[in-house]
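Worked example 3. Consider a protein that binds flavin mononucleotide.
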Amino acid sequence: MTLRPDILFSPLALRHITLPNRFVRSATYEGWGDVQGVPRPELGELYLALARGGVGTIVTGFAFISRQGRAMQPGQCGMDQDDKTGPWAHIVTRVRDEGRGTRLFMQIAHTGRQTLSRITGQPVVGASSRRCTYFRQPVRMLGDDELRVIVNDFACAAYRARQAGFDGVQVHAGHGYLIHQFLSPWTNTRKDRWAEPTLLLQEVIIAIRRKCGDDFPILVKISAGEDTVPGLGVDDALQTVVCLEALSVDAVEVSYGTMEYALNIMRGGIPVDVALQVNPLYNRYPALVRHMWKRFCFPAYQAGIIPFAEEYNVPAAVRIKRQSSLPVIPVGGMRTLESMLDCITTRGLDAVALCRPLICQPNLPQQIAAGEFSRSRCINCNLCTVYCDSDRPLYCHL
Ligand SMILES: Cc1cc2nc3c(=O)[nH]c(=O)nc-3n(C[C@H](O)[C@H](O)[C@H](O)COP(=O)(O)O)c2cc1C
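Given these inputs, the predicted complex is written out as structure tokens:
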């Protein structure tokens, strides 16, 4: 049977913006930031390749909104200071001038407990003092005044993104980062007004609207599941989406998981030897200790990893779509033209977000249009994933 991909190339009208087609490059850490988090020009080349390859919407890798919310990855870009607006504007202008009407969104994030104090230069903070088993840092519970500062930091980062020419922002409320920590019963054990899981997210959206105007598009990325008990599930995600609907955000992207089991966000291969070599959480230990870890601790870690399956977040996205009027975009495991079409035509979802397939083939939409694509070349080896923790920029290792 010949699949007619036309629907994938049809525009998608969101509340405040129209996306040129249904291909969304899901936020992907690129590693092209300098030590201060200023984006290097090579990042523009990467976005241009995606734009020329037919990707309608590009979401940047997660950009930190403040030094406190910076991640462990050494090449992470930021939007925490006014002097970063210029370098970002340069990149956006290049893509606008030479791209094909591609929409650009900046993903803005605060890591909360999922970072290291030697990176941020200050104590690690979170919704509660519960430590992350991956980063193993002591965590200080954030106070009311500090949370107000963080809300303002999100708004200022969004404002800078608007000044730089971005079409909108994506608020990172998933993958165990700070906003997710408030949404999750595992980490939000508070007794004050911030015990309301969605309060921080709501305040962030309201502050962005105030600072950037009602017409500035906002996407939100959420996790609709995680690996702890108690943990956030699809019903919690639905509650979040009800709030987002009331706040008229433009669309929600549905993902999974936290950094506690990072490979459950991605799924697929577990390149443990490379991780032990390049990940600063492990490579500071002597080879013998790493060897022992692999032998005795790794099997237990591995047992908690969910195997890769195609379209693994689509069932959760469909449930959310059925109960909300917001456009819903699934991410995770879309590897065939058939599954991309199925998401939109049969399942009623609005677009498809892709990460690893576009690292592998940035011109994937163009290949579909030319009838030259049926399955992604990505084999989910996750080498791109584990090398994020090294000082190498993003690339496909195949
Ligand atoms: C190398 C790499 C970097 C990533 N960086 C981010 C990021 O900055 N922000 C984010 O929300 N998700 C990030 N993700 C997760 C992806 O956006 C996506 O949710 C996940 O890879 C599943 O989609 P896929 O099967 O199409 O790869 C990253 C994934 C990979 C492999």
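Take a moment to read the result before moving on. The mean pLDDT is 96. The pocket of flavin mononucleotide is lined by residues 26-29, 61-62, 107, 172, 175, 221, 255, 265-266, 331-333, 354-357, 384-385, 388, 394 (CB under 6 Å).
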